[in-house]
Amino acid sequence: MISQALKPYVIGLDLGGTNSVFGIVDSRGDIKATTAIKTQSYSQVSEYVDASIDALQIIIDQVGGIDKIKAMGIGAPNANFYKGTIEYAPNLVWGHECVVPLAEMFSQKLGIPVAITNDANAAAIGEMTYGVARGMKNFIMLTLGTGVGSGIVINGQLVYGCDGFAGELGHVIMRRENGRLCGCGRTGCLEAYCSATGVARTAREFLSTSNEPSLLRDMKPEDITSFDVSVAAGKGDELAKRVYDFTGEMLGEACADFAAFASPEAFVFFGGLTKAGDLIMDPIKKSYDEHVFHTFRGKAQFLISGLDGSSAAVLGASAIGWDIQE
Amino acid sequence: MISQALKPYVIGLDLGGTNSVFGIVDSRGDIKATTAIKTQSYSQVSEYVDASIDALQIIIDQVGGIDKIKAMGIGAPNANFYKGTIEYAPNLVWGHECVVPLAEMFSQKLGIPVAITNDANAAAIGEMTYGVARGMKNFIMLTLGTGVGSGIVINGQLVYGCDGFAGELGHVIMRRENGRLCGCGRTGCLEAYCSATGVARTAREFLSTSNEPSLLRDMKPEDITSFDVSVAAGKGDELAKRVYDFTGEMLGEACADFAAFASPEAFVFFGGLTKAGDLIMDPIKKSYDEHVFHTFRGKAQFLISGLDGSSAAVLGASAIGWDIQE
């Protein structure tokens, strides 16, 4: 407690392919100061880190200097928690062909401990620290965005596995025959159906295999996004609602399998698809109840992230900072 | 260390529907004394516990008295680790209609801490304490017997979930369409295919859907057991070997999904089916390599239990005793 009183803040970095957003956060999850740089503007990681430090220095000074800061947490693609590295991240100009020891680089410049993990794990820790999973020891976070990511908490700890990369629930197989091609090169992955792109694809499939009237027919099929589907569903479009039913049913089936593994007290959903609210959550819950092994029935809550969407990634990243064992 | 020197033993109880086998075990997994009673001979749990204590007293005296014993571990069906109970166990005369606080009952009679968990979890702890998973922090135990059970270790701890019942990997769904009916009432569970009964059923299916010659045709289909399949396969019977290929392929696919969850350093297999050796392990490994998400490829070992089959259950149960926090 003394250390938290003396060093009341952590730095969070949400490192995306386009933007890098920094926040200085207190233990209640209040963001005290924030800044950002363009991730893409630097061809070398050393330049990226130098530019980050320059931007950070200003907000560090705003909160009283580096002595007020306990640690830094980074949420980034292809992050290896154990090694503190980003490994062959296809979307990072300075990181797609190599292993970047990013935690160590920031730690040397700032003089504080730095940890790094992937976005979905950061989201799970953020939810456990500041959000709807506060106090929970066993829950599964599913991030429904461009892809389907996951962060798994068991016995109060993030599951990293033997290599630091555990928790790729977007890549469990939901269709073993005639499954959709996934970005990972395999077929039938959960992500191929239940990501934002998967939802748009389901809509296009439903449109092409029926003559059912739909607001979505006013668009070119290739232009339809998951956002368009949610807008149509919000207006009562039956086909669009069936897209959510289909997506939610599959998520419910997947969660039923995850329960057989971990028997979590909650599934927490995060990301664009959750904006559809009951349209997606109701079929998830219904399908889960129908499919789950009897022992686990009625035990798990289904929750939507409690963190504000625009700052959730920075909060999640910052939350890793509190957990660092010095 | 002092406590272990003063109390060098734990008691293990392998509580099955027919027999209850007790062993007194040291920290290296040597069984110093053993005894057994018939589980079925008692209609009341109090009689069962009294008979157990009478039998135990003799072997406790053999090792120098109760002061030499740190704790007792019980492996039992439908065991709830958190509550120390057996809950509605269909195979137990005195336990199929109620919740039995068995850990507390033994603890009161013996004056030592007692913990209880299901057989597969006990097997996993046994493997971690005395067997091939010694020193591992992340592994998954799959018991291939009458059913398919599992014990999952993450960050060095057994996964119990929010209710004490996590780790039912025999009941993840492997066939979502036209799946086999499982004993749990759902269809397509791993257990319906990869248990001993599942293997016999696969053999009957293969026999009935082809005219391929097979040694198994000398038997009545309904009499075929997984043991018969292994004997035929051992003699080079092609159909019997294909039964193992089919079973191993499905186990490999299932393990690929489990890797996406936990990225374990090993899968440890236990039970009758493992006696088939490479006949089952080779197709498991091949299928796993084909199906696993690229990040996890080549990282997990596939091992057969290192514990002697006849004493493995007692050893596993006893191993829980070392873990009890007093």
TrEMBL record, chains A, B:
Q: Which InterPro entries does UniProt cross-reference here?
A: ATPase_NBD, ROK, ROK_cs
Entry keyword set: Kinase, Transferase
User: Can the keyword Lipid metabolism be found in this entry's annotation?
Assistant: no
UniProt KW Transferase keyword: yes
Question: Domain of life of the organism in this record?
Answer: Bacteria
A molecular-function term among this protein's GO annotations = kinase activity
Gene3D superfamilies per the UniProt record, alphabetical: 3.30.420.40
Q: What is stated as this protein's family in its record?
A: Belongs to the ROK (NagC/XylR) family.
What is this protein's name? Answer: Glucokinase
What is the source species? Xylanibacter rarus
